[in-house]
Amino acid sequence: MSTTCAAHRAYTFEEYLQLAESSNIKLELIDGEIFAMAGGSLEHARRITNIAKLLGSQLEDERCAAFTAELRIRVLSTGLATYPDLACLIKVRAAAPEAHRACSRLARPLVHRERGRLGGIR
Fold first, then answer.
1. What is the pLDDT of residues 43-61, one digit of tens each?
2. Do residues 31 and 122 lie in contact, with contact meaning Cβ atoms separated by under 8 Å?
3. Fold annotation for 13-106
């Protein structure tokens, strides 16, 4: 018996946004594929909250800000669109009119490796 796999379809960022807007779960876009994001544990959430508080208190100038997983980030160089646990953005731009549909954009991100996964970038 032979098994065939369906070809993977590459989604565009606009298609991802349309699906994400109608979804009741957080989705991420990696290499044209859309994945449901897993939830974290209580301990994980506690650690992220503590790190965000510490980082936020150190970023007092207006050029930098710390954000938690409520902010969707798009990495232009890879096409990744995700909700990282914690992001530190430098030179945060004013939100464009379409910001409710879009997200913050990063051209050259620094990526933190977590448990064998390179920040969602393959």
1. 988 998 998 888 888 876 6
2. yes
3. tt1808, chain A (3.90.1570)
